[in-house]
Amino acid sequence: MNTCLLCDKPDETGSYLCVVCTRATEVRVQSLPALYRGLAPFLAPAGGVATVRSGKGGPAPLPVNEDILDLRGPGGVAGAAERWLADVRRDRGHTVATPTGGVEARLQAAVTGLLANMPWIAVSWPNAGYFAKDMRDLTKSLTSIIAPTPDAARGQRVGNCPAVDPSGAICGAVLRLAPGEKAIVCPWCTCSYPPYVWAQLKTWIDEDTKARGAA
Ligand SMILES: [Zn+2]
Ligand SMILES: [Zn+2]
């Protein structure tokens, strides 16, 4: 009797992956396109319209998250799925197709290919364990980026931080009033907005929103 390469439990079917882990891996592979799409809103920070405004300072604006940019690029989620599919095809003696189309179409094609090969992977592929672990790690890291924190715990959304750094760039991070807090504190530039500036804060946020809409 051998053991499943993912969960290390004995498997009486003699496969590389047990039935439970095969199913779990299938679900993970299936979820990749949705996870990929779910990354989009996390790509770019808000803000970016430069206006001159005295007073509030802060560090540089929120940078584009390069990790997410990498994951969404051709070498990211889609690339990982394509590399595994190419390995499977090679080991099965099938021709390895050159991926074409946009990143999302390529990801979908690779996912479809992997799912079609899943029975063979589980039963006959010595690399099934590495593959299953990689899919588990990938979906876990994608989910950790996307998984929404309940709004109640994060507080009410106020708008985008209007603080301006010395170069004239607007911070733009999302401001929230956390439950029980007396002041709104920017999670990025740490600017603090006590209640007596909230009226002014709202004016600034509205100005920035308008400027962004016009840009
Ligand atoms: Zn297992
Ligand atoms: Zn800020």
Question: What would you note in describing this structure?
Answer:
This protein is mainly alpha-helical and 215 residues long. The chain is 49% helix and 8% strand. It has two domains: 2-46 and 64-146, no CATH class; 151-214, no CATH class. It has helices spanning 19-39, 66-72, 77-91, 103-124, 128-146, 151-154, 198-214, and strands at 2-3, 10-11, 156-160, 174-177, 184-185, 192-193. The strands form three sheets. It has a two-stranded antiparallel sheet with strand order 1-2. A two-stranded antiparallel sheet has the order 3-4. A two-stranded antiparallel sheet has the order 5-6. Strand 5 and strand 6 form a beta hairpin. Helix 1 runs antiparallel to helix 4 (103-124). The longest helix has 22 residues, at 103-124. 29% of the residues are buried. The protein binds zinc ion (2 copies).
